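Researcher: Structure for this, please.
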Amino acid sequence: MSLHDIRCPKCGSDNHSVHFSYVTKCEGSRNLLKCQNCGKCFAETKDTFLFNLKTPISRIANVLTARSEGMSFNSTCRAFHLSPHTLQNWELKFGDLKDTLMAYSLSQSFLSLIIEGDELYTKVHHNTEPHDSEGWTVMLMDRASRFVLELSCGQKNESLFMTAIQTLAEIIENTEDLTLVTDGEKQYGKLLFDICHELVKTGKPGRPRKVLREGVKVRIKNKGSQSKRRGRKLPKYQALKPEHPDTCQNVINSDIHANHLEGQNAATRRRLSAYRRKTNTYAKSSDGLQRVLDSYWVFHNFIKKHFTTKKVPAVDMGIIDAPFSWKTLLSIQTAQ
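Model: Predicted structure, token format:
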């Protein structure tokens, strides 16, 4: 899979030739391509962010950077003299890159990963009890590179956690050794066990034992009131489900935490206005919140250098060789 191949929107072929060139208003010369299979003519920016766009890329980059660095929606419209419809459309198109980039990321192979899982919370539309809010956001992040693997919002129920676990299951297929650590939330381990287990046949009588797939480990750290409650005490560090006997047990207790993700959550609260407590309503709708999260996911993983690692997370994780420029990123064809 290549991110930069230009494919025919009709037949999907990458066998094309330059039909003729034309000059754009802001970005210089571009080509009109002709498919050699079906004969369709199409612009080289077809199905990309830049298709039919007459705004300079530098201006779009400044606007989206401002949004991903903490400026609110209305403030961005006022500061850059944009209509709300234009900014919303740009964020939707920028967030559409997430599916393509995520599919490319999941196609890579990794030797060993330590994934931290945690949740963020904000209000959506109106003030409700936390368990009824659609503003719960599940985040999975690779500890070493700070690459955010999952960023989805909704009610805090099984379907929200299942969305994250399904992404994790796809990563497991291309990873030899994966460790998932969370702060006290047991649904990660339970749902992962339901869709990612195997049977260990020992040759002894009886039903074979269910265990996690070989190379997969799940650890949680019980903290706060959970470990101080009355009655039976919960262990501070816990493996939720039985693991494969051939899995290398190389996780020490001091490594069972989500401190790096807690730091990323703090940064997310600073950079996304929907999570800051400056108004009674933090986000107007769950769809709008997910639009902002998708845009932030692309910006965080493929554009911005992380404060701690000093590298773009996708580069540090080995998904891409060098950081993308804005022009290169916005020229990627989105999944149709």
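Researcher: Any notable elements?
Model: The chain has eleven helices and eleven strands. The first strand starts at residue 16 and ends at 23.
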